[in-house]
Amino acid sequence: MTKLTRRAALAGAAALTLPRPGLAQADQRPAITIAVQKVVNSNTLEMAREQSNVGSRVFGCYAEMLIDTDWIGDLSLRPGLATAWRRIDDRTVELDLRQGVRFHNGDVMTAEDVVFSFGPERLWGAGGQQAGATLFSSSAAGAAGKAPPPEVPAIARRTYPGFERIEIVRPGVVRFVNRTPDVTLEGRIARNVGMIGSQRGFAEAESWLAWARKPIGTGPYRVAEFRPDRDLVLEAFDEYWGGRPPLRRIRFVEVPEAASRVNGLLSGEYDFACDVNPDQIVDIERNLRFEVVGSTITNHRLTVFDTNHPQLRDARVRRAFTHSIDRQVIVDSLWAGRTAVPKGLQWEYYGEMFQADWSVPAFDPAEARRLLGEAGYRGDPIPYRLLNNYYTNQTATAQILVEMWRQVGLNVQIDMKENWGQIFDRNSPRAVRDWSNSAVFSDPVSSISASFGPQGQSQQVGESRNEEFNRLSVELETSTDRPRRRVVFRRMLEIAEREDPLYTVLHQTATFTAKRKDIRWRAAQAFLMDFRASNWGV
Amino acid sequence: MLRYLATRLLRALLTIAMVVTFAFVVLRLSGDPALLIMSVDAPPEAVEAFRTAWGLDESLWVQYVKYFNAILHGDLGRSMRDGRDAIQLVAERIPATLALTLPALAIKIGIGVPAGIYAALHRNSLTDRVVMTLAVMGFTVPSFVLGLLLVLVFAVQLGWLPSGGDGTWRHAVLPVVTLGVGGAAVLARFTRSAMLEVLGQPYIRTASAKGVPWHAVVRGHALPNAAIPTVTIVGFMVGSLIAGAVVVESVFSWPGVGRLLVVAVANRDLAVVQCILLLVAITMVSSNFVVDLLYGALDPRLRQSRAGGAG
């Protein structure tokens, strides 16, 4: 055993008191505060659990995927924690891992960490990835146990429906293997569920919940403190592979009231205020020190139908719904023209899958009345379950819709609800509800199949079922014949938006962030906020 | 007196039991916590497992008996969302709420009562009218409007105070003033009305006619008799110390019990909501119990009738 002498102790103490240039120098980088409505919905930072718009805003600061998406640029896939990838066959993608990437706990990222991140410990539970197999960690969503709570395997199955395994080819090279052919594997790997976490960090966490509240990722900022329902503090991770982060600290603070967020920005307490309403933009920009950035994002607002409702079983009634909406009026009156009516549930960045000649059902009240007459609709009430502004302008949009529907003879009655549980409650008749759909990668599988296919939420909660649509959805997910996939997608749009409407698209979503004008920062075409060096300047 | 106390205590316990029962039933009829906590992404078998684990699959009656029994044993349940004891979650937030409501209570009493007395003693004067106009404005303006107005003036325009959040005493100023102004206005009006009623009583005229100095009449006869309605209102204000700032906490992003209640209700986090409501009920009932006792101290007739056995 080393003997500690008095001389050694004195020397040590002296050394501690001497100035150390590297440590004593104050960090001159700015610290910013961002006011948000919610930091996360589930009170966890684990993206395999937190599948929400608000959660996707913060995760990019602390976590990364193997394949990144250029959310600020052209939305293309680009190297992330993998520097390159290639197709081995229709079911397999091989990825070269970036060398020298460190986790927030100091560990170097290895292929084992990647395998862990797609493995049962983090995603699938003890039951593995087979459908229906889940392990319930605890009744308190992982408060005590180490296994993921049951919704995590459900989300994983939805994200990677054909996942078979991930295997190490050699150090620094892994293979993502699907059970079925899938041309969208790269896009799926780029989804935030596939964030790469530290295996040791997970092992050392006291519980799944402890991990989920302080995940050890590779992002430019590490989680310093997370106080559920209050704030999230991130600190610069100077060993970030992409270079020294430009900010010393980022604090996301929950400010539920939109007016309070804007007031806090104007008074100088916040540097950014998120989820600004369109009608606040003019007032904010009247102050020359501030500006509002952001625009349309890869998310559309929808009205969704429960085809089991007695009045909605007849597709002609639902078609009447779709023809009686003047979508441009909503865009102009509630969004000041800052968003657009899209070409159905698709985005241009789908590339060759984009159906440029497709459009939402035309505003045609006469056609709507004709359809209602043919269907024999007698004006029976149709409930419209509505949340109070979960989405921007949601309530005002609903009121306009109800009046438009009333104009053609549809008797739609708003039924205000407090939460999603009440929206989906099956104990009373459901008919119409609101939703939004994102395209998290550049293929219709990421939207129309993910939301309305057999594994999609709509069918999972029992709202609708169209056998032909389901068959096509499976084909879209598994086919590698690109021309055929385009035909399949076209037919799915025809069914879901025209023939047997499962939903109707209202408008593209736009999100607006108010900020200090002296900060050079660009908003992404998604909810995600990028605070890497490439997107910051003062 | 003992019989009086025992009766009051029994009533208090009955009130708490009724509040607990009402909260229990209403919460369970207003949404399925399993869907909310588990999220709609959870597969049906997972939702069912959640219900089983938390006893939500049992009949309402069985759940109620178990819940009531647990309360009697000091167990207020665990948060379904957080996994921790509900009382622990609530206790963490109480200091933040009291940091607003206690100073606000001091403002209410410190401004409202003297203003009401002054206005009554100067009835129909310009001062009376100004005080009462301000009082009417104070309690008719909703707290969220007043809060935003104060923020616009003192945070946005003048930059003197933070617009929201917590951390320093400066963060508490605007929410405390917002809470205090409305309560002070209410107290001013009640105190004025009570004083005017008392000042019109024959014994006040008698005291004045006997040559007792006016300030002594006010202090010795008017104030004690006018105190009963004021004490009643103050009692309610004390009772709402724990959860009386729900709106203000939301407007100012203050991390107190009020915001916890909003989030817990939205997520149907049953144990947390029930725990908060139970604490509110206990506080309110205790406060009213103390007010009842104070009535006796303030009014000798009540004291004598209780001593004589009247309930």
UniProtKB/TrEMBL annotation, chain A:
The residues covered by the Solute-binding protein family domain are 77-457
Residues forming coiled coils: none
Q: Which Gene3D superfamilies match?
A: Dipeptide-binding Protein, Domain 1, Dipeptide-binding Protein, Domain 3, Periplasmic binding protein-like II
One biological-process term from Gene Ontology? Answer: peptide transport
GO MF:
peptide transmembrane transporter activity
| GO terms under cellular component | ATP-binding cassette (ABC) transporter complex; outer membrane-bounded periplasmic space
Keywords for this entry?
A: Signal
- Name where it's found: Periplasm
InterPro entries in alphabetical order: Peptide/Ni-bd, SBP_5, SBP_5_dom
Q: Name one Pfam family in it.
A: SBP_bac_5
- Tell me the leader sequence span: 1-24
So what family is this one in?
Belongs to the bacterial solute-binding protein 5 family.
- Cited PANTHER family: D,D-DIPEPTIDE-BINDING PERIPLASMIC PROTEIN DDPA-RELATED, PERIPLASMIC BINDING COMPONENT OF ABC TRANSPORTER
Protein name in the entry:
ABC transporter substrate-binding protein
What organism is recorded for this protein? Neoroseomonas lacus
TrEMBL record, chain B:
**What superkingdom does the record give?**
Bacteria
Q: Residues in domain ABC transmembrane type-1?
A: 94-295
Q: Name one GO cellular component term.
A: plasma membrane
Keywords (A to Z) from UniProt: Cell membrane, Membrane, Transmembrane, Transmembrane helix, Transport
**Any Pfam family:** BPD_transp_1
Q: How does it sit in the membrane?
A: Multi-pass membrane protein
MF annotations from Gene Ontology: dipeptide transmembrane transporter activity
Report TM segments: 12-31, 98-121, 133-160, 172-190, 226-251, 271-295
**Intracellular or extracellular location(s):** Cell membrane
Q: Which PROSITE patterns match?
A: ABC_TM1
- What does the similarity note say? Belongs to the binding-protein-dependent transport system permease family.
Q: What is this protein called?
A: ABC transporter permease
